[in-house]
Amino acid sequence: MRSGQKIYRAAPADGIAFVTGASSGIGRATTLELVRRGYRVAVTARRAEALETLAAAAPEQIFAFPGDVTNGSQMGGIVFRIEKELGPIALAFLNAGVFFPAERIGFDAAVIAHTHAVNIGGTVNCLAPVLGAMLTRGRGQIAINASLAGYNGLPGGLAYGSSKAALIHMAESLRLTYGERGLTFQVLCHGFVRTAMTDQEKEFAMPLRIEPEAAAKIICNGFERGGFEIAFPWQLATLSKFLKFLPYPLRFRVIAAALRNARRPESDHSADAESN
Ligand SMILES: NC(=O)c1ccc[n+]([C@@H]2O[C@H](COP(=O)([O-])OP(=O)(O)OC[C@H]3O[C@@H](n4cnc5c(N)ncnc54)[C@H](OP(=O)(O)O)[C@@H]3O)[C@@H](O)[C@H]2O)c1
Q1: Average pLDDT, the chain
Q2: Which atom of ligand 1 is nearest to the CA of 212?
Q3: Scanning 71, 214, 228, 267, which has the fewest C-beta atoms within 10 Å of its C-beta?
Q4: Please, what's the largest Cα pairwise distance for the chain?
Q5: What is the pLDDT of residues 17-30, one digit of tens each?
Q6: Is the CB of 151 under 6 A from ligand 1?
Q7: Which CATH class is domain 12-275?
Q8: What is the pTM of this model?
């Protein structure tokens, strides 16, 4: 974007919001927050029933388009149908993603490939049709949900962390490639949110974890501001960025020590098991 050029920020009057990974967690909560802010929202994920339940919460404003983001032609068809049936997509929140704690057990090529297929490939499959339509109109806002885990290599980050690093790179490149054509690109780099994804994590403490509803408010405020990065909580975002400036030997030592401290005692794991 040339300096002085106004950043495009989507508004409900401009068209539909499109949210991927809306059947649970952050996608679901963000859909409901967008509805509260006046949007009509087209939602996708594989679990059709969960999407229908979500749509039933605001039948005039939420529209379910079940699908698998790893299927490129299906995502192309869904984006085409949304625009035909509901109108132009003004805001796309590409949020669908997976995380498998089992990646810590070893170097599992299948887990890495699947994680990349959903997190990177799935985002690309949605980006392609959305970007095409927005470029034709010369207007649109696209936000990609990466993670603070994408900033630095982490023990066990072989699949998830590397996929999120790729998404950060992708968002930066999109901004630099198409940012002068009326489009706004954003990347979400956030910390822990209480969802099915983080509920799987038993081994490490998750400092400053927040509820999805609170995350959704911060995320939608970020959409409205239109800045490139939506990063929270500030404490973890600042720490993650600071670590990147350290020379590798020091960075590796600090990360290893921090994660040793974050490891929860075995007794906590069994307490979780009992409460579940
Ligand atoms: N929770 C956190 O602390 C945290 C932190 C940083 C970033 N994030 C990111 O936030 C995003 C949402 O995660 P969440 O925490 O809300 O977890 P979640 O509740 O497990 O939500 C993941 C969503 O992705 C969808 N999804 C997974 N595979 C899919 C596929 N092949 N096709 C279509 N949709 C698919 C799931 O729907 P279906 O199963 O119905 O397909 C679900 O709606 C992810 O990208 C995650 O990496 C989360």
Answers
A1: 93
A2: 16
A3: 267
A4: 58
A5: 999 999 999 999 99
A6: no
A7: alpha beta
A8: 0.95
